[in-house]
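Async update (no meeting this week)

Hi team, since we skipped the sync, here's where things stand on the single-chain job. The sequence we agreed to prioritize is pasted below, unchanged from the tracker. I ran it this morning and attached the output directly underneath so nobody has to dig for it. Comments welcome in thread, and please keep replies under the output.
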Amino acid sequence: MKNILLLLLILVCADCKSQETEGTEKINVLFIGNSLTYYYDMPETLQKMINETNSGFNIEQSTFPGISLDGHLNSIIELQTENRISTRKKEEGEKTETEIKLSEKDWDIIVLQEGTVRLLIPEAKEYKVETAIAEIKNRISNQNCKFILFKTWPSKKEYPKQYCYSKWAINHSLENDEYCSPEIKNLEQEIELINEAYGSVAEKYGLILSDNGNIVYEILTQYPDIKLYEDNIHPNKYGAFLNACIFYQMLTDNKASDLKYHGEIESKTADILKRIVQ
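Output:
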């Protein structure tokens, strides 16, 4: 219920802003994340979908390979290629690229995307993910800005599986040398753990929770012929299109199935994905 009310606030905000400016001012949306967001130009695909029915949204992104939300605030990028970045710790007086981006506009909506593994390891979730989310929220001057937590999906790594981080990757003050997720025995358990972890963070910080992970799970279990993965975790062109459809509906309150746009995928598969999102 809380997420539904927050989503209604987004729509009311967008409607009011559109009426006040008579269509001259955009609703500014910023995606902060990594390759799970930008693979196959998902934000650009979302903008094209929106342009078909509603030009009132401006979609931008601050996304880099492999970066965490914590890294967005604390790491200076020294070198970047298509699939990797080289970073160093931010020094006093410096600003990261995402910090600069956050200060550019009075953002109306910010979509926060973190790697799935960090949410599944309780200590990483507490010390890294939650700390970064709280800090990002505190830096936004627009009191009406709404935050969406991009709920991601299970990996294709074989079961049983378990994810572990050393304390040095989480917090040096922790007692143990290593911290792990629960041992995951099957897909059903993994999606339950994802829902629990993301749900707790969304509730704690007043975030609107996207449903990408559950919709991917639905396709994996009910439409196995539709392949959504490029590798073990990244979306392929179908997965990216699916994500864009989900955010299109969240932002505009329009049905993805009414869109003519199908991007770089065949129209038949695009129509199936649009219908599934509903």
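Quick observations from my side:
The chain has one domain: 2-277.
The first helix runs from residue 2 to 21.
Reply here if anything looks off.
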